[in-house]
Amino acid sequence: MNITKSDMMVKTRPKLEKATIQTPDLLKERLAEVGKLLPEAFSEGKLDMDKLKKVLGDLADDRPERYTFSWAGKRDAIRLLQVPAQGTLVPDKDQSVEFDKTENMIIEGDNLEVLKLLYRSYFGRVKMIYIDPPYNRDADTVYEDNYEAPLQAYLLQTEQITEKGDMLTSKPDKQGRLHSRWLSMMYPRLFVARQLLSDDGVIFVSIDDNEVHNLRLIMNGIFGEENFVNTFAWQARTSRQNDTDISINHEYIVAYAKNRRKVNRRLKPSNIKEWYKVMEFAYFPLPLDKNRFSNPDNDSRGDWAAHPFDAPGIRKNLSYKIKNPKTGQEFLPPRGRHWRVEEEIFKKLLADKRIVFGVSGEARPLLKYFYNERKDYGRVDTTWFTGKNRGTVTEGTSEIQELFDGIIIFDFPKPTRLIRSLLTIATKNEDFVIDFFAGSGTTAHAVMELNKDGGNRKFILVQLPEPTLEDSEARKAGYKTISEICRERVRRVIKKIKKENAQEKLAEKRECDLGFKAFTLAESNFRSWKGVEGKDAKKYTEQMALYVDPLKPKWKPEDVIWEVALKEGFGLCSKIEKLAHKENIIYKVTEPQKQQSFLICLDGELKESAVRALNLDKDDIFICRDVALSDELAANLALQCRLKTI
Fold first, then answer.
1. Which residue from 389, 493, 390 is spatially nearest to 440, judged by alpha carbons?
2. Which long-range contacts does 358-362 make (Cβ < 8 Å, 24+ apart)?
């Protein structure tokens, strides 16, 4: 549909749709979901608690004395969720590796602000979250949330703006050990994180004895105690500390699912082969000694081992007759035992040649386990993560020392083996992984190492630019912030993997993503309404005049485009393409994963000829500045496509 001269006769400016320049109110969205399910519990647009109790009946617990969990500041922590993010993410190509090709992200900034900015784009898309938050034992927390102006607090903390008194120093904070402050810091971050998880997603949180009990309680409240997976005990140290009463050698990893499965409760569906999805015995551990497997019948699926087809117990539906198709001999389960699966499943297994009747073909039925299937499945994990199998803090330190030429650039990093084991449990090839307490970047390191097998897991790291200590090895080596260390570590990991690939001549086989986009949390490109005190008409008029064009002075087109894309729900993997035209500069923004795109022009005046050349139709989204449109062009563009204005 093209604009014609007759179209230009339209002179009435329509009410135009505004481009999204604010992040959503998470609690308001959740309330809207309740409204869809229980509209009868609302009155005049608000949730009526009395009506809700009546709707729920006996399910509502309104006893005066009941089990609850609260802390000083919880109300403010919840209120913080209602405050839209006031910043934006600005790309930093100089700090990036393969910016235009990669789907990995490292973001510098306060993680709550960043999570809010990612909310619309990554809602329900993240398969696994791993975080290693402050353990609240050293009284030096740097997350000072301000629910009225969170970005202002962030800028003060990162010394991007100045004010009397330094809000971010290495000087201990005497109030930092209070549980309430730690809970208020963790609650909103975990709340937003849950929204990012896919329906089958899982979150792992590293913690120690200082806050593990409180962590369980707030996660019960956010994820639901029915979605608790387990608490893994990790042997962080194998050596004994003799300078203390008790040598503490363990930490914890608390795991919650977005929606805990009621059957086949295994975190890694990619590890459950087609037959195993319906067979209870799939979870029985089987030794994976290669010497125990062979292929006497030349099965095309490779080496296999036989396992008894009967199990302890007596169940009527599992006590059918099995007939050897070769000899006609019939078998029943041994006394006090039953077959492992129902008869219909047995028939499928038999048809798939997964049942053998001994070496001679005339013995009791056995199940074939194929090595190539079982080697990827492995044994069912236990809740005890040994240092031998998962690595220790010492191993994590050695890894980072090796990368940084012998310098201990970061204290107590987690070993990559530990994170890789969690990735193996919870993710498969194309999944998104987020770590919003990224530290030195161990999660990115683990993802890239695991992807060497041909995987394509993608990571998003978030790290506050927390200053390194003045007398630290990191500061002496020139690293002023932990976020700088994080980016540099990932660069060195990329260099290391590329070198290994070249040496092994596997570059073509290992086409994993060896790059990352760097972004920084910064002030929004849009003015925020500050209001006017009293009834001063002149000041009100002056304030209104500023919002004729909401863009702040000295804005940059690329920064504005990324902000609009993010707040419109486009991910950071989006591609920005500049379209050639003589009269206007127009960009096309595309996110391949969602298969969606929009066009945007930020010029001060939009020309009719430039728009006509685009050949827009009703499914196209076109975004431009409100001041760039004449009334006629606005009216006709609104008829031609989905027009949004800034």
1. 493
2. 359/296, 361/324, 361/326, 361/327, 362/324, 362/326, 362/327, 362/329
Query: How many CA atoms within 13 Å lie on the side-chain side of 465?
Result: 17
pLDDT band at 379 (very low <50, low <70, confident <90, very high): low
Query: Residue 220: exposed, middle, or buried by beta-carbon count in 10 A (0-12, 13-18, 19+)?
Result: middle
E strand or H helix at 55 = helix 49-56
Dihedral sign, Cα of residue 563, residue 567, residue 573, residue 576: negative
Tokens 């863009």 appear where? 551
Q: What is the mean pLDDT of residues 265-284?
A: 43
At 365, the amino acid letter reads P
From the number of C-beta atoms within 10 Å of its C-beta (0-12, 13-18, 19+), residue 552 rates as middle
**If we measure between CA atoms, which residue out of 534, 565, 532, 536 comes closest to residue 546?**
532
* pLDDT of 8 above 70: no
Q: CATH for 87-266+380-522?
A: 3.40.50.150
Q: For the packed helices 442-450 and 482-504, what is the interaxial angle rounded to 10 degrees?
A: 20
Q: Give the global pTM.
A: 0.77
Highest mean pLDDT among 57-66, 163-172, 280-289, 315-324: 315-324
Rounded to whole angstroms, how far apart are CA atoms 547 and 535? 19
In angstroms, how far is CA 515 from the centroid of its own chain? 18
Q: Could you tell me which residues are beta bridge partners of residue 643? A: 622
> CA-to-CA distance for 502 and 495, rounded, in angstroms?
11
CB proximity list for 332: less than 8 A, separation 6 or greater: 319, 321, 322
Please tell me the distance from the alpha carbon of residue 257 to that of residue 234, in angstroms, as a whole number: 19
3-state secondary structure 280-293: HHHHCCCCCCHHHC
Chain mean position to CA 540: 43
Mean pLDDT of 146-166: 58
Helix, strand or coil for residue 564? Answer: helix
Size (the chain), residues:
646
Q: Nearest to residue 200, comparing CAs of 267, 262, 255, 263?
A: 267
Residue 161 has pLDDT above 70, yes or no: no
| Residues 6+ away with beta carbon under 8 Å from 491 | 97
What's at 110, amino acid-wise? Answer: D
Q: Structural domain boundaries of the chain?
A: 7-17+540-645, 22-67, 87-266+380-522, 271-377
- From CA 631, how far away is CA 278, in angstroms rounded? 63
